[in-house]
Design a protein that fits this description.
Layout (H helix, E strand, L loop, with lengths): L2 H8 L10 H4 L2 H14 L8 E2 L2 H8 L3 H13 L3 E3 L4 E4 L2
Antiparallel strand pairs: 1-3, 2-3
Helix pairs in contact: 3-5
Length: about 90
């Protein structure tokens, strides 16, 4: 099997801005931020983006503890607001 055939069947790539890693606190936080920012443009809920941990893992490859750490870093930096209803909102 050719590499290109394999990559075509693996799924979608996730893009992030490497220069956001330092301001976000880590590469994982930058990846999560970029993914939530992408979805914020398509959000239909009045509170913002709604994603489960499983959905984020499927989209980014970030596991539970990686997500928790990334979310904590983004909250500390004031760019992520979470409600108890599991709604994410990325400041624009």
């Amino acid at each position: 099997m050719r590499l290109s055939d394999f990559l075509d069947n693996v799924g979608r790539p996730v893009a992030y801005y490497p220069r956001l890693a330092a301001p976000c606190g880590s590469v994982n936080a930058a990846i999560l931020f970029c993914q939530l920012y992408y979805w914020s443009k398509h959000a239909t809920h009045e509170l913002g983006v709604h994603k489960t941990g499983a959905e984020i893992e499927d989209e980014t490859g970030l596991g539970r503890f990686e997500q928790e750490t990334a979310r904590k870093l983004l909250r500390q930096r004031g760019v992520l607001i979470e409600s108890k209803r599991s709604i994410f909102d990325v400041w624009q």
